[in-house]
Amino acid sequence: MRWTGAKVRLRGVEPEDWQAFMRFDSHVSDMRDADMVHPPRSTAGYRAWAEAESLREAGDEFRLAIESVAGGELVGSLATSAVDTRAGRFSYGIGIGREHQRRGYAGEAVVLLLAYMFGERRFHKCEVAIHAFNGASIALHDKLGFRSEGRLRDHEFFSGRHHDVVLMGLTAAEFTTRHPFPPLRPA
User: Fold this and answer.
1) Does the residue 26 lie in any domain?
2) Where does the secretion signal sit in this chain (predicted)?
3) Is residue 184 part of a domain?
4) Tell me: the pLDDT tens digits for 102-161?
């Protein structure tokens, strides 16, 4: 299992990451693209959150920091959620800091995550819910092989009105067609 690609390395959140997460949260539109707008948090709150994340036991629901290989800088994070071990499916969310977007970090981080969840944890399907106005995320997931599975109309409320959510999914078989698992021992 690789946690490092050509552009990014996935690693656990460290207590000293609090400043980068605070910087990422300073852009309301980025918060909304990744999830939703949260109230401002104090410096102490960010420190405590990063400390707690660094100590959290990782089961099938976890958060990873996304670090650039070139500079070793924290560029974002991703987190698994909605894990259903009986059905073999999970979801995830990803956020890349504004100053690091459009560099291929998100796509590579998602591929590394999917290789782990499909190849090591035996999940069958990954599902994502994307705000319909987030064309960049929809295009990314399209490029990664996710298929559109539906649209939830007027599903989320923020910025004074309701917004649609696009549902997309990818099975392990679809993933491995594009990204075969490497041999156990390289030749």
Assistant:
1) yes
2) none
3) no
4) 999 999 999 999 999 999 999 999 999 999 999 999 999 999 999 999 999 999 888 889
